[in-house]
Amino acid sequence: MMTQSQHINLSMPDWVQSELERLPSAIPDINERMRTVIRFSRINVEQNTGGPFAAGVFEKKSGKIISIGVNRVIDNLCTSAHAEVMALSLAQQKLDRWDLGGQDQPVYQLVVNWRPCIMCYGATIWSGIRSLAIAGAGPELESITGFDEGPLPKQWREELESRGIEVIDNVLTSEAIVVYEMYRDAGRLVYNSRQGDRS
Amino acid sequence: MMTQSQHINLSMPDWVQSELERLPSAIPDINERMRTVIRFSRINVEQNTGGPFAAGVFEKKSGKIISIGVNRVIDNLCTSAHAEVMALSLAQQKLDRWDLGGQDQPVYQLVVNWRPCIMCYGATIWSGIRSLAIAGAGPELESITGFDEGPLPKQWREELESRGIEVIDNVLTSEAIVVYEMYRDAGRLVYNSRQGDRS
User: Fold this and answer.
1) Which residues, at least 6 apart from B140, have a Cβ–Cβ distance to it below 8 Å?
2) Is B94 on the interface with A (CB under 8 A)?
């Protein structure tokens, strides 16, 4: 007889609650939104609670903060617990709706400290989010950290735009990179799977 | 002050437990593995507990069943709760490890009732799974149901193989398609996001 748990529980680190309490309810400026996300990515490295990634869902116009997620792959034993999946899922749960792109609601923006990996690229599309702001999309993340980000389609920006998702690139690029260098210098785990042959 | 829950809870439908109890501990034949997965996809439609998708993680050699997942997007208010993400996350939790491709463990296989969407394609890569068996990879799923499966890279099979993941295609294709036709004929929700403009 085959048995399994019927529940999956993903959790944020303990330090997040007090960090959230220091935030205002809204961050109108896009640079400040990214700076906040990068700060969460940095603390996630400093506290050794996950990979060097964070993401936030905001109301695009007002900057109201809906959710903040950080990478939780190792601690949650779940390779889908990337920052974007955490932030989007927390936002959907908080707003009590699976579609963040519905007509009767504000435009929501996902702010991430780099271009999403192939999985989170898809998660972004399915979430209904209408705007994606990233710190960069170049090879720096992979070359500095060693993470494999997967094979995005060549026309990845056009594919987002054809689905009504705008892309805002190069927001605080160098500040984001500092955290990747910190992760590398700390010798932290690069948890690409497959027998550890890329770690 | 900004607050959010620090937990995300994903759950399988109530009917799953009794269905799992009817299964043997191992299913050696690949066709029978797929038939089991397709049966879970069909019950998910009949019970109206999610989209027409299911996935299972098996030990490839013995057929030992590790986990079965079904699509839970609507009920869990989570657009990342696709069948593959559920099955892979349940397997990682059950095996108490985030890497299903580690050297000191058996080869694990993900069996799904169609080619993964762009998000689950990435989730498959990151999980460490070593084998992917699918019922089909053609346009039938999208054309019958109306679901957008996203822009996979053209060389998606080669990209998997270059990461040590074999692809076994066309397992019980026509049996899988019957469930998509059932979903269409039942008039169930096609929950691609973005203001319902594709539903």
Assistant:
1) B177, B180
2) yes
